[in-house]
Write a structure and sequence with these properties.
Blueprint (H helix, E strand, L loop, with lengths): L5 E2 L10 E2 L6 H9 L4 H7 L5 H17 L5
Antiparallel strand pairs: 1-2
Length: 72
């Protein structure tokens, strides 16, 4: 997934994709949501990630998946 809000740098957590300007792995957002946590819980746990950025990353992921979607 390409997103200007995500960076993968070998110098930051060994290249794990993180939210730009943080050391918070993007996968943590998806893990929180998969566990049934709300976006608010994630944002409380990781205050360095702004709501707008988290929502934009989710939208970027949705768009990336829609490219491969086939009509029903």
């Amino acid at each position: 997934m390409k997103s200007p809000r995500v960076v993968s740098d070998p110098e930051i957590l060994g290249g794990t994709p993180v939210f730009v300007g943080t050391r918070v792995p993007v996968r943590i957002l998806f893990e929180h949501l998969a566990a049934g946590d709300s976006l608010e819980v994630f944002l409380e746990d990781f205050p360095s990630v702004g709501r707008e950025v988290a929502v934009a990353v989710l939208e970027d992921a949705k768009k990336a998946l829609e490219v491969d979607a086939h009509p029903a």
